[in-house]
Amino acid sequence: MSPHSKILGRLPGLRHFIEVAQLGSFRAAADKLHVAPSAVSKQIKNLEFALDVELFRRDRGRGGLELTEAGEILVRRCASVVNELTIAQDEIHQLQGLQRGHLRLGVNEVLASDLLPGILRDMSYNHPGLQFTIVVENSREIFTRMQDGDIDIALGYNFPPSPEIETLATLKRRTYVVTALDHPMARLRSVRLKDIEGEKMIFPDHSIPIRHLLEDAFTQSNVTVREVLNTNSFTLLRQMVESGMGIGIVVGRFLQIRREKIAFIELQDLPFDSPPAACCRLAGRTPTASSVAFAAAIKTIFANYGG
């Protein structure tokens, strides 16, 4: 069944009329619609009765049915009707996408634990029929899954530059030293690299790009620290900082649901720009209604929140 036929399924008179007008035959229209020719004829007669006009000339000597002047007008107007109904159907499908859609996200761990819970809570409240699938991975794995069509939107840091990626929103972040609340630096607003000379340091591991940037920064500044732990989990890193095991360096302060008892002290003299948080999707693909709604929520947060 064509999209137009599907849309007009509740309007049988117009639906049958359009098919007969296009095919020039009651029988051909009946075959296409899988109904008896008499059913098509009845629908056309009902429509003609409702409009009080003849829509077709039925002279037996003609090679096929011809539209009357009234029929020609109706065909032209039906084109507008079908167009508007098509738009209406698309809009309804978009609404249904939010009512019972499926949002698939790929998210870096630190954003999954800090930024994401509040957004998902609000979306779930506003659109209770939505289903969520959240993949927490590093940026390279998220990019691969996005290419494979496994996720709709990516949220994280350091996505590889590619014409395949459409960036929907970015948020410039500052870099902070994080300490336990009873650490001497916790009372400061900002520090420089030389101020953390000799400190016990909890590092991200070498699979995370910022680790290499930090090592280069310490080398250039001739600053030495004592590594006591490294991990690929920023959640664990912050927990161990909170416990007093050491200090850490992170990008950004986040909208945490449960705020750890840690202090954020801005690190001012790094020789590199902190990577922005980015919300991306694969370019050239039609976005789902749920992914559009999520991207709008991210843009709002990014526009109103900094740091």
Protein model, in words:
This protein has helices at 3-7, 12-23, 26-33, 37-51, 69-100, 109-114, 116-126, 139-147, 209-221, 234-242, 289-304, and strands at 56-57, 66-67, 102-107, 131-136, 153-156, 165-171, 175-180, 190-191, 200-204, 226-231, 247-251, 262-267, 277-282. It folds into 3 domains: 3-98, Winged helix-like DNA-binding domain superfamily/Winged helix DNA-binding domain (Arc Repressor Mutant, subunit A, Orthogonal Bundle); 101-172 and 276-304, Periplasmic binding protein-like II (D-Maltodextrin-Binding Protein, domain 2, 3-Layer(aba) Sandwich); 175-267, D-Maltodextrin-Binding Protein, domain 2 (3-Layer(aba) Sandwich). Mean pLDDT is 82; it is low at 4-10. It is rod-shaped. It has 307 residues and is α/β, with parallel strands linked by helices. Helix 3 crosses helix 4 (37-51). The strands form 3 sheets. The chain has a 6-stranded mixed beta sheet, covered by helices on one side. A 5-stranded mixed beta sheet has the order 4-3-5-13-6, sandwiched between helices.
